[in-house]
C-alpha cells in the first residue's frame, strides 16, 4: 500500500515537472511551494548571513527556472537537482567569498580559545540568562549577539558599529576573554 502511494506521488511530481519543463508557471509555483522551505533551510545552514541566503535563494529559483530544460529525471531525482543548483549558487561569487571570510574569522577565534565559541556563548547564555554579558560594553555585547546568536557576518557587524575588521576582531576576542574570566564556565 505504501509503495503504491509512493509511486503515485512520484508520478504526480513527474507530471508537474513535465509541465514546468514546458514553461508552465503554475507548475513552477507548485515546485516552489513544495521545495522552497527545504532549499531555504539548506542555504541558511550554508550561508550564515540571512539576507545573503535570501538573495542566493532567489537566484537559485531563477536558475532552476532558466535551466529547467536541462533536468534529466533519468540521471537524478528532482530534489537532488534543485539542491545542486542551490548549492552551486551558495558556492559561487559573493556568497562564497563573504561566507569564507566570516568562517576564517570564526575559526581564528575558536583556535585562540581552543573551543567552539558559538557553542560556549550559547551555554553561557543559558546558564546566566538575563545576566549574560553584563561585564561587557553594551556595543560589544550587541555585536556578539548579532554574530553568535543571529548569525550576522563579522564584516556587516563591524560596519554597523563603525569599526575596522581587525580592530573589531581584536575587541571581540578581548570581550570573550573578559566573559571567560568573569564566569566559571570553561570554553571546552
Describe this structure in words.
This protein is mostly helical. The N and C termini lie far apart (50 Å). Helix content is 76%, strand content 0%. The mean pLDDT is 80. The chain has helices at 2-21, 25-46, 50-66, 78-90, 93-113, 117-128, 138-149, 154-160, 165-182. α1 crosses α2.
Which descriptors would you attach to this protein?
188 residues; mainly alpha; 9 helices
- In sequence order, what are the helices and strands, one letter per element? HHHHHHHHH
Number of helices: 9
Q: Low-confidence parts lasting 5 or more residues at pLDDT below 50?
A: none
What is the count of β-strands?
A: 0
The fraction of residues in strands falls at under 5%
Q: Helix amount, in percent?
A: over 70%
Q: Rg, please? A: 22 Å
The main β sheet shows up as: none
- Provide the structure class: mainly alpha
Mean pLDDT: 80
What oligomeric assembly is this protein in? single chain
Write a compact overview of the structure shown:
By secondary structure, this protein is mainly alpha-helical. It is built from 9 helices and no strands.
Topology:
Elements: H1 2-21, H2 25-46, H3 50-66, H4 78-90, H5 93-113, H6 117-128, H7 138-149, H8 154-160, H9 165-182
Amino acid at each position: 500500500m505504501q509503495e503504491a502511494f509512493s509511486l503515485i506521488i512520484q508520478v504526480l511530481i513527474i507530471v508537474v515537472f513535465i509541465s514546468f519543463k514546458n514553461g508552465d508557471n503554475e507548475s513552477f509555483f507548485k515546485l516552489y511551494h513544495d521545495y522552497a522551505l527545504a532549499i531555504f533551510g539548506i542555504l541558511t545552514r550554508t550561508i550564515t548571513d540571512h539576507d545573503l541566503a535570501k538573495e542566493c535563494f532567489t537566484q537559485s529559483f531563477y536558475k532552476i527556472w532558466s535551466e529547467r530544460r536541462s533536468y534529466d529525471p533519468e540521471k537524478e531525482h528532482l530534489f537532488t537537482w534543485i539542491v545542486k543548483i542551490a548549492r552551486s549558487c551558495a558556492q559561487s561569487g559573493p556568497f562564497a567569498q563573504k561566507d569564507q571570510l566570516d568562517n576564517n574569522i570564526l575559526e581564528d577565534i575558536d583556535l585562540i580559545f581552543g573551543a567552539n565559541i558559538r557553542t560556549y556563548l550559547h551555554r553561557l547564555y543559558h546558564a546566566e540568562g538575563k545576566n549574560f554579558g553584563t561585564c561587557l560594553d553594551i556595543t560589544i555585547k550587541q555585536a556578539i549577539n548579532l554574530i553568535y546568536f543571529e548569525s550576522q557576518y563579522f564584516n556587516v557587524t563591524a560596519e554597523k558599529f563603525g569599526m575596522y575588521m581587525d580592530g573589531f576582531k581584536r575587541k571581540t576576542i578581548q570581550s570573550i576573554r573578559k566573559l571567560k574570566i568573569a564566569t566559571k564556565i570553561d570554553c571546552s
